[in-house]
Amino acid sequence: MVSSKDVAKYAGVSQTTVSRVLNTPELVKPKTIEKVMKAIEELNYIPNDIARSLVQQKTGIITLISGPLHNPFFVDTTTAIVNYVNARGYKVNVYFGTEDNLNSIYNAVLETKADAIILSSMLYQDELFFKLEKRGIPFIMFNRKHQENRHFVEIDNVHAGYLAANHLLSLGHQSLCWIGGPHQMSTFYGRYQGFVQALKQHGIDDKTVPTFFTNTNKNEIERAFEELLKLDRRPTAICAATDAIAIEILNLCLERGFKVPSDFNVMGIDNVELSKHHSIALTTVGLTSEENLGFIAIEKLFEVMEKKSSCIRQTESVKLFPRNTTCKNELM
Length: 332
Hints:
The protein is built from 12 helices and 12 strands. It is an alpha/beta fold. The chain folds into 3 domains: 4-56, Orthogonal Bundle (434 Repressor (Amino-terminal Domain)); 61-155 and 290-318, Response regulator (Rossmann fold, 3-Layer(aba) Sandwich); 157-287, Response regulator (Rossmann fold, 3-Layer(aba) Sandwich). Helix 9 (186-201) links the parallel strand 6 and strand 7.
């Protein structure tokens, strides 16, 4: 079996240099890296990850707790996170959380060794936050914030909700409704607060505006839409807390013969890749930079792992992306 000593001899470098190339390549000159990697390839050397992890007291693993894949936001962010982690030479353990399986996922994660954790499942008052801090493992939340106000990367959810509602109101839609998720999550709570701010600014009592709070799965969104259709005063515009909800509403409108935006304006928040597709062209609110929030968060997590930062508190600015699912109210 080929050893690192054989690689060092073949490449004409020390065994320590081979170790540095494999573990801390940023400290090695590019030409040396090229020479060592060529030797590894030609000798078909397979590093012993287990032995290396024991020496370094590292696993080479990042744990990701993502949201469900029926939400395209988590498709986008999971892809970005996994690609970034793999490019940094780490492996990823991915869990997809729902309301039904979160406790079992948390238990599995706490029992498994990893170098760091990135998660989007945290509730505003989640006890998991304190368990993670007690373990001393680097972790970061994305698209979520805990009441302790640290270890997070989020968008400005309050302003996002405000921009979404204000856009519809500015188009002359006085009859709005809100479809969002549970307020135990900072994302949904903040976006709804911004929605209410815009209503009040336009002289509308938020208590008169129909609001539906769902667990965001397809059946619950359909139930909310059916309730919406039964209202005596049917809204002309639907403000959804996420693009995932908005896209499902678009589908329900088409299934029932309604036209968007002539029968209903539909507004989302997140600006996921699917919303930009010309066949959907959803009006939404998203990151001003148009970067992927998962990518931003995983970069910040590595800063913590590398001791470049101790605690991340980052709120990204947002802007409106007007597309084809909203238009001026012709009845104004």
